[in-house]
Amino acid sequence: MKTTKIIRKSMKTTALLAMACLVLFSLVLLPAHTSGQSKVQKSPGGYHGELDFPISWKHYYTYDEWTKIIHDLQKKYASLADIQTIGKSRQGRDQFLLTITAKSTGKPETKPAMWVDGAIHGNEVNGITCSLYCAWYLLTRYDYDPYIYELVNRTTFYILPGLNVDANDSYVRYPNTANNPREPFRPMDDDGDGLFDEDPTEDIDGDGELSTMYVEDPAGDFKLSPDKRRFVQVEDPREEALRFRRIGSEGFDNDGDGRINEDDLGGPDPNRNFPYDWNLRNGYPYPLSESETRNVMEFWLGQPNIFGSFHFHNTGRLIMFSAPPAARGATLTPEQQRQVQEQNARRLEEMRKTNQYAQLFDRIVDRNYQGDMDALTEIVTMGARILKDYRPTMSGLVGQAQASSYYMLGAYAYLIELWGSPTTEADENKDGRVSDQEMMKWIDIELGGEGWINPHKVKHPDLGEVWLGGTAKKHISRTPPARYMEEEALRNTQFILYSASQFPKVEIDRVEVRPATDNLLWVEVSVKNGSLYPTSSDRTVQMRRDVKDKLTIDTSGNVKQLEVPEGQTILDPTNPTDRMQTPKGKTAEFRLAGKSSQKFAYLVKMDGGSGWIEFEVSSKFGGTAKKRVNLQVGN
Predict the structure, then answer these.
(1) Given CB 3.0 to 4.6 Å as the disulfide criterion, which of 99, 165, 231, 234 pairs with 93?
(2) Residue 161 C-alpha from the chain's centroid
């Protein structure tokens, strides 16, 4: 049975013991990794390795191009990177993964890992750029930047630049709308005619872009705008103007059924294809039906060192995170919800007086998950600061990758919705939206007119003369013009690295020795995790998959650990709140929360005038640390 003990000493006894015994001790740290940086640069105005491997970030790379880049990176930085394929896509492309860590400090699987993937949706190829940039940033800066040096020494990064490689490559290489192709290329009969993918979109005028088709129609609902660059709604039915009827997206009627583009390429949504909270309506035909998602999940299951994950999507400038489940019984009436929201709004307003990026979420989580919620809130608060115009919010479930990462692996998971409409760049009146006029002004001024398809006549083989245009080009809305990519990739990389910097890191904070009586000593040791994340997530604990942190004691032959009742001890009666654990045996097991410490007390007996005691703390995700205390007792 665990007990609580208070060691009481009179002032007289304490004074006598202090005169009788002089206890001297010194702390000896084990040596850390000592291979220094060869080109360390501490000036923010200096060069940090960018030209060691130059890449233009003002370009969207095809599959062949970006896979060559990562192979070349691996060859140049072989001591830091390995490359492998985790499997093949439906069309036979390899899903190449970069594993980045300093090999000199240990194998990748022995370190806590961050997973990064991009472009699970085929059209969201700015996620490839952000993932690729993260890999390049880590490798090129390793020899120059002490912050990166430390991260790569103690952390593993698994980076899959493109997840949905078939659709990704199609989106970059061929004419497409901003929204397609999105899904993996599983053959499907969308229109129920017994044929598969037989009626996709086509580039009728050969301009490399897909737009919208109109035909002239006196009864049509559209007309040309005054500047002749857009199709706009007719407001007054009596107005005399050249009118148009909208046909739909650019393409042909390939199967002769009178409809256009109704059976395009693509299968199920890959971010509804993961197992957690999967359902048939969202994730047809079954969980992990697609080789691309199955390969990812199988890799995850083989890497129990994954502690966090980032998943790059678009659009909307959102920091979405997999939040812990709401507490049971936390369902509120509409009136209670209103009161909670009003109370939180007032709290948040007060918090933002000192931190404009402060975050507060309405979800009430079970107390067993509060540590995860607190850590996630702190991380996305910093994410809002780093990314500036991104809004943190909770993400969904329904077979999404980040939901499986958190709920099945216990890894802290973030979904980043990149870019969106050019709100920050084009919104002149700051009303939170971009009007047609603001959009055209941005295209004309910042983009020099590039990025817009002006209305023009085209000969259509089925419809005769049609009009095309009045829409933005592909890399305008969901994926930004390439000139905007590097800044976005840099900031998102900084957010990934900040999150990784907050992976748990255990240390022995201090060791103190107190005389007890004669040759008995109390040795107090404090172990600490100074990072935001706990040494294992609350979710992992609830799944009973967590590995406990351990504190182990070792002594010289003349120092003996004495058994005391397991429980809590107060060594200083003047400070009853300073409680310490008294472990049973040589190993204590526990779990460190984020930004926390725990104290332990050991009673030891010394035979002879000198000796030593050594403590080692080890954590699956938090690493290891040792401290040795040299003891000397004498008059």
Answers:
(1) 165
(2) 13
Distance CA 113, CA 92 (A): 28
Q: For helices 401-409 and 291-301, what crossing angle results, to 10°?
A: 20
Contact 571, 514 (CB under 8 A): yes
User: How many angstroms separate the CA atoms of 212 and 406, rounded?
Assistant: 41
Give the CA radius of gyration of the chain.
31
Beta bridge partners of 611: 631
Q: Which of 474, 182, 502, 459 is nearest to 313 (CA)?
A: 182
Please tell me the distance from the alpha carbon of residue 189 to that of residue 437, in angstroms, as a whole number. Answer: 40
Q: Say what the pLDDT of residue 13 is.
A: 38
Pairing of strands 520-529, 559-562: unpaired
Asked whether 425 and 446 are in contact (CB, 8 A), the reply is yes
pLDDT of 91-121, one tens digit each?
999 999 999 999 999 999 999 999 999 999 9
Distance CA 82, CA 290 (A): 26
Q: Which is the CATH superfamily of the domain at 54-171+269-421+482-501?
A: Zn peptidases (3.40.630.10)
Of 6-10, 151-155, 573-577, 606-610, which has the strongest mean pLDDT?
A: 151-155
CB 230 within 8 A of CB 436: yes
Residue 137 — very low, low, confident or very high, per pLDDT cuts 50/70/90?
A: very high
SS3 330: coil
Separation between Cα atoms, residue 537 and residue 518, nearest integer Å? 44
SS3 call for 405: helix
* 316 pLDDT higher than 90: yes
| Cα gap 609→24, rounded to integer Å | 11
Structure confidence at residue 7 (pLDDT): 39
In the chain, % helix, strand, coil (3-state, to 5) comes to: 25, 30, 45
CATH number given to 3-31+504-634: 2.60.40.10
Distance CA 123, CA 117 (A): 14
Q: Please list the alpha-helical segments (H only) found in 352-480.
A: 370-387, 401-409, 423-426, 436-445
Listed in sequence order, the residues at least 6 apart from 165 whose beta carbon sits closer than 8 Å to its beta carbon are 63, 89, 93, 94, 95, 292
Cis peptide preceding 226, ω within 30 of 0: no
Q: 168, 185, 170: which is closest to 129 by C-alpha? A: 168
Q: Which residue has the tokens 């926390």?
A: 596
* Widest CA span in the chain: 111
Domain with CATH 2.60.40.10 in the chain: 3-31+504-634
- Strand pairing category for 610-619 and 623-634: antiparallel
DSSP 60: P
* C-alpha 517, offset from chain centre: 54
Q: Are strands 549-555 and 587-590 parallel, antiparallel or unpaired?
A: antiparallel
CA distance linking residue 443 with residue 634, whole number of Å: 83
Assign 149 to helix, strand or coil. helix
What are the residues facing 370 on neighbouring strands? none
* Spatial contact of 513 and 523, defined as CB atoms under 8 Å apart: yes
Please say whether the beta carbons of 267 and 184 come within 8 A: yes
- Mean pLDDT of the chain, nearest integer: 91
pLDDT band at 27 (very low <50, low <70, confident <90, very high): very low
